[in-house]
């Protein structure tokens, strides 16, 4: 979501101001789209090689699914809660214990016996024991057909570096250059920004083979896989010209944010011409998911392998509306360099990196379901099983690769959705993810119109194929402030909040202090649910996310350092990798602090303030209201886009001045506001924000909706505000404002007046001895 809004933010703002015709029309197109299932045939000239990473047992056919159906013939498996051990060690949980925990139950499907094309695999003489750590080397004989008496759970024979390189070299020699008519599809591929650029009818499409489990979704043990051959890849194979002219151009394109990701299915990855024969090269594949939907996947090999020619793997999820990242050699993320670790750095540190186009976006089939464990989560589970069969992927055990996940926004949510149903994942690092999309888009029944329209614009402009009810619900909420209960139920049904207790994977949560979409409250809810379940959890609040840092600069160093330490400790099983204290945060000055526990105990004396003078203010859209914050123009192009919904001091406001601090005071957590009011009109919310009197910046750029009833009667309500991380020096103070209009909740259907008869606030503070300063390494 964060990076995806780079595409559609400006168009979305126009809709927020009432100019919604383009999105309404786009929604009609999206609703009319049948979703592009994996079985549809597209006329292209892209060459593919079909492989089935599976045993010889019959596979079950993919169930035909309508857009509104639940998985597995319209019956959603019952969500099961699993009691988790509260005394698990800080190190990675035992894989055998994780295997006993499984996601939701799956309805039985009739067996069938299609005949997929199977990939020749080495058949080990003995079945290696599933153990945590490096697998035992097994000599790999010549490739033979899988025998009918193969064990129920397929076993991948580990290989020496020599055998692995030989096998890779054989595959390279077997590749055929795509036919020259592939050039004819280039223009149409560019027009559609690469979406479906590589679709064609698979040589063989089979459902994943699964091992049935009575207590949850089965873990896939065989997946139909097709290698994709980009139509212009052959240009890099032209002697001399390809090596010294074409490949450098391809490398340069891949270094440009978004451009290389869009063009990758056409131009391919840059070839390493000077690598030893048979050395792993980056390639793309189509992986068939549980329901026959094809997921477009990129595999980018590590630059460091062990003596077996293997490396652990990291899955890198993209933001909303974006294809899977393919910046092969960049050490920092090309679009969000201060929020997410780069693919190049992960490869340097000894990790294979895998990215993908999420369901319903770009080259992947199906309909987007907003990172539902029932859909997108199971897509990733199929990818994991495919990785377990690759000879260059290190294993923890049978069908269990050493694997972690990173990614921001939409790429953060998928980590929680997947870890809830697949316990093979060793570590996740969800960055600026959400807890509940209902609470995000409709907090306290207010409509977050700014971000809702921007995200809707992204879906329309990138030709995404969301569930057919998502765009109409967003548009109805934006324009009229009303949403059907059935659409709210859909958001809740597709969510993972009620399954966080199923997660056993060690989790590092990054959340932005200036994120106006997925606020600190979202990470707080995730963290508390994980900690309550006994899951190893760490929380970092940093200046970034869906917003703009206007009071300080985030260089991303701590984010990258903590990410690598988390992956090394829990994926590589490196006990020397220090993951640091449980909670780290930065204030508005860029200073870092930490606590050994989360949530941090607010043991300091709270700062309080009160106002008893009545004041009346009218409801006027935009004029005199909060935001946008003009200082975001100094945050760079992306900062401007992400910072548009930022709150700012308002003129049409009721002010409560809080007494100045008498000592260094850390305000960390959620302030509490009590409001006494009356009034008349159609408005159903006012908004509260806290302004730093020294800098004239709103803390965290946040405005919090406060529900009101304007029936002429006097009411008193108490609500928490959005969480903040702020430091006051002696003599510094803040002012609480009640406003009737703010840029992130802008609407044109709220009118009337409100009489604020009194208000008070309590700001949570930390005792000085509860805070340690942290130095970003």
> Could you describe the largest sheet, including whether it forms a barrel?
14 strands, mixed
Q: Radius of gyration in whole Å, from Cα?
A: 27 Å
Percent strand: 15-25%
Pairing-aware structural class of the strands and helices?
A: alpha+beta
Overall number of strands: 28
Overall geometric form: globular
Plain-language structure description:
The protein has 777 residues and is of the alpha+beta class. Helix content is 23%, strand content 20%. It has 17 helices and 28 strands. Strands 1, 2, 3, 4, 5, 6, 7, 10, 11, 12, 13, 14, 15 and 28 form a 14-stranded mixed sheet that branches. A hairpin with a 2-residue loop joins strand 8 (395-397) and strand 9 (400-401). The longest helix has 14 residues, at 161-174. The model is unreliable at 1-48, 53-70 and 72-215 (pLDDT under 50).
Task: Please supply descriptive tags for the structure shown above.
single chain, 777 residues, alpha+beta, Jelly Rolls, 14-stranded mixed β-sheet, five-stranded antiparallel β-sheet, 17 helices, disordered N terminus
